[in-house]
Amino acid sequence: MKELKDILFLDIETVSISETFEELSERMKTLWSRKASFLKREEGLTEDEFYFQRAGIYAEFGKVVSIGIGFFHAEEERLELRLKGLYNEDEKALLEHFNVVLGKMRSDNLKLCAHNGREFDFPYLSRRMLINGISLPSVLDLAGKKPWEINHIDTMDMWKFGDWKHYTSLDLLAAIFNIESSKTDMNGSDVNRVYYKDRKLEKIADYCLQDVAVTAQLYLKLKNIAAVPFEVTITPAN
Prior knowledge:
single chain, six-stranded mixed beta sheet, about 20% strand, nuclease, hydrolase, 3'-5' exonuclease, 3'-5'_exonuclease_PolB-like
């Protein structure tokens, strides 16, 4: 447990800030069109289709709809991976809830761990918190911190071994380390559709939690921590 103490594993799911491009203000339409002009775009996609497909991955044009969290807990010889899914259509309420959870961790050395977290999850959460007028928790507030003072762990960075050109998906790493995949009947590209068309936010939250469980197991593999049986406990959301 010494290796795992104070680590909060997480994953976020995001969608476009509105269902359609037309719902944006004129100012934001102009700014999205400008950004879209620099992005690789499949031939034949309309402005609205491209917005629906890509806007959710940018914090300026997207929002967080689900945050999956998990941590290891040991009691006597029993090890648990405790998971909880947070989700809400009200992004501000969701981020405030997440802030409360971080506060309850009561650790001066809290670490956040996510796959591709440095490039996506951590900055996205920070940007959306500020947009929603929420003060950043210490673990996300990087201002004035030296690199070694930033308590962020990224399993993709761990796999890169300094090779900054190399992107490896969580699904691929799960496969090579023989970890059960989180990709069942949906993947990341389906989230916007499931949210806006199917109206199944709880399904997105379940998918998000699966990624958290895979990330936690991947961390064990990358740290070469001896495989020990552990139970998975899921706390009902909200």
